[in-house]
Amino acid sequence: MNAESLIVAPGSKVRLAEIDPASTGDVASRDEARPLIDENIERLTRLQYLLYADGRQSLLVVVQALDAGGKDGVIRRLFTGMNPQGVAVTAFKQPNNVELAHDFLWRAHLAAPAKGMVGVFNRSHYEDVLVVRVHELVPPEVWSQRFDLINDFEKTLAHGGTRVLKFFLHISPEEQLERFRDRLEDPMRRWKISDSDYTERDRWPQYAAAYEEALEKTSTAHAPWYVIPANRKWFRDLAISRIVVDTMDAMGLKLPPVKVDLNAIRARYHAEKLEEQAAGKSKRKKKSAEKAARNGAGTKHH
Ligand code: AMP
Ligand code: MG
Fold this sequence. Notes:
Layout: H1 30-54, E1 58-65, H2 71-78, E2 87-91, H3 97-100, H4 106-111, E3 118-122, H5 131-134, H6 140-143, H7 146-159, E4 162-170, H8 173-185, H9 196-202, H10 204-218, E5 225-229, H11 233-249, H12 262-301
Parallel strand pairs: 1-3, 1-4, 2-3, 4-5
Helix pairs in contact: 1-11, 2-11
Bound molecules: adenosine monophosphate and magnesium ion (MG).
């Protein structure tokens, strides 16, 4: 699987209509993808352990998509192997009053991963050039300045040791409608249905245009965008897990040097062990003495 072909080259044009959402690259089937995904998830588990132990860098994974694009599925599937202590997932909803009283990047910066951590954004600061633009929540002269601000923000994160990866899950309108149907038919998924699903769907072309501009203007060397064909969930999971593994592999993560004098610690360990053994011996002695005494006492009664 050639993950590099999914990257949005910095400065390049993006035509979503020309990217097939049903593409599965050179992967023939779900059965072929399964073991590869499982292997990647295992590698992610180990890499996350290293990132945490290393403690000098962090990783931020941004997941964006239209409704039913599969954001929740990606997060559930790919980050399950990781230690919850080292992962912070943040879902970006409609801003609350406190968030609205700050600049649009404030809440994103607050949620950015600390050193050693993996941060996952389910939606993100990009909503401020997507839904905000499509719904005209701020005038064009405001949102249009945000691309540069986003690039500067992400550069700040990179400068601070955070690797930033951004995934746009690309599905077709037909696939979205099928997933809406699944939600209707499956009682376990009905809670996900929202009135806005269909009104947002009507604005597909406006969203596509907003995404295209965002992808073009904010895919950078320090924070690249990937367009992930996402009609097939298994291809989506394979592609993203692969890209995250490759990225973490290249971060030069290593276990930190041991901070103590191991020989001295070993000597202490052996001393403790000897003491414990001695204590165990005398405890056993005491116990058998007690037992003998009890038995002795017992015989007296007979
Ligand atoms: P969901 O991801 O389905 O739980 O929905 C979250 C909702 O919050 C979506 O409709 C988003 O478009 C909306 N949202 C997220 N960020 C913003 C924002 N900055 N301004 C307005 N709406 C937002
Ligand atoms: Mg939704």
